[in-house]
């Protein structure tokens, strides 16, 4: 199924507004006026002509948003415990799987806690929930990083007490990096590693350290949100539920 994206909604909205505004010629004249505060709330009666006009489109959009694409075995909160959140771990696992579909050499993934916008309730997952989880038009990006830069990323993850990651293990004490492994092996400064993330972070969003000067960068046309929907649908077709767990990807030593 093809789902409506925000990029297709906004041009339609702009076209509608232009069409209504183009129906008559208005001559503006400056007059004296007294400002008045008007409450914009549920007591304002909607314009029936406009609501009737958009009703078919609203119904179509709502039907898509209500489509069930999979299930989760438990609630996935975005709140962190010892540097990890279940929602963040799910997101990072999904992103890693998507990255490896695009490039089998991808070994790890990175998101941010701030990028996870909602909790995911136990049970059915609808398309609309994925839009809430990732309401941005971000695209998947694959970065080739030196081992040195990857360790700089590890230090950033440590000083921020953990971020959503997969394919790596970061051990932290007092917000300092103790050790970092990729696919269960210590990071080698003399090697390069492929990390999957999204364009906002690769462009400097959230001030993440270690990824600003990759050896190579590949931007893909795949939207993160569309990838998440496809990932959840794929699990569902296999008879699987989302079953995110806290594990040893982030270890905070007391």
Automatic annotation (TrEMBL):
<dbReference type="InterPro" id="IPR008334">
    <property type="entry name" value="5'-Nucleotdase_C"/>
</dbReference>
<dbReference type="InterPro" id="IPR036907">
    <property type="entry name" value="5'-Nucleotdase_C_sf"/>
</dbReference>
<dbReference type="GO" id="GO:0009166">
    <property type="term" value="P:nucleotide catabolic process"/>
</dbReference>
<dbReference type="GO" id="GO:0030288">
    <property type="term" value="C:outer membrane-bounded periplasmic space"/>
</dbReference>
<protein>
    <recommendedName>
        <fullName>5'-Nucleotidase C-terminal domain-containing protein</fullName>
    </recommendedName>
</protein>
<dbReference type="Pfam" id="PF02872">
    <property type="entry name" value="5_nucleotid_C"/>
</dbReference>
<feature type="domain" description="5'-Nucleotidase C-terminal">
    <location>
        <begin position="68"/>
        <end position="209"/>
    </location>
</feature>
<dbReference type="InterPro" id="IPR006179">
    <property type="entry name" value="5_nucleotidase/apyrase"/>
</dbReference>
<dbReference type="GO" id="GO:0016787">
    <property type="term" value="F:hydrolase activity"/>
</dbReference>
């Amino acid at each position: 199924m093809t789902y409506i994206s925000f990029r297709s909604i906004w041009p339609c909205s702009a076209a509608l507004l232009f069409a209504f505004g183009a129906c008559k010629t208005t001559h503006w004249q400056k007059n004296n006026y007294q400002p008045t505060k008007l409450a914009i709330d549920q007591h304002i009666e909607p314009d029936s002509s406009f609501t009737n006009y958009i009703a078919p489109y609203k119904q179509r959009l709502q039907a898509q948003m209500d489509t069930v694409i999979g299930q989760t075995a438990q609630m996935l909160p975005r709140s962190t415990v010892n540097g990890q959140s279940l929602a963040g771990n799910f997101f990072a696992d999904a992103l890693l799987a998507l990255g490896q579909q695009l490039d089998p050499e991808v070994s790890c993934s990175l998101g941010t806690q701030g990028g996870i916008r909602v909790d995911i309730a136990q049970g059915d997952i609808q398309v609309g929930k994925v839009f809430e989880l990732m309401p941005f038009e971000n695209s998947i990006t694959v970065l080739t990083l030196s081992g040195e830069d990857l360790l700089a990323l590890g230090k950033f993850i440590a000083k921020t007490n953990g971020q959503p990651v997969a394919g790596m293990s970061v051990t932290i004490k007092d917000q300092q990096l103790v050790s970092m492994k990729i696919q269960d092996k210590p990071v080698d400064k003399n090697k390069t590693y492929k990390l999957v993330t999204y364009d906002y972070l690769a462009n400097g969003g959230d001030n993440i350290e270690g990824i600003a000067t990759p050896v190579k960068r590949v931007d893909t046309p795949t939207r993160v949100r569309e990838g998440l929907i496809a990932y959840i649908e794929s699990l569902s077709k296999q008879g699987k539920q989302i079953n995110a767990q806290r594990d040893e990807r982030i270890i905070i030593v007391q």
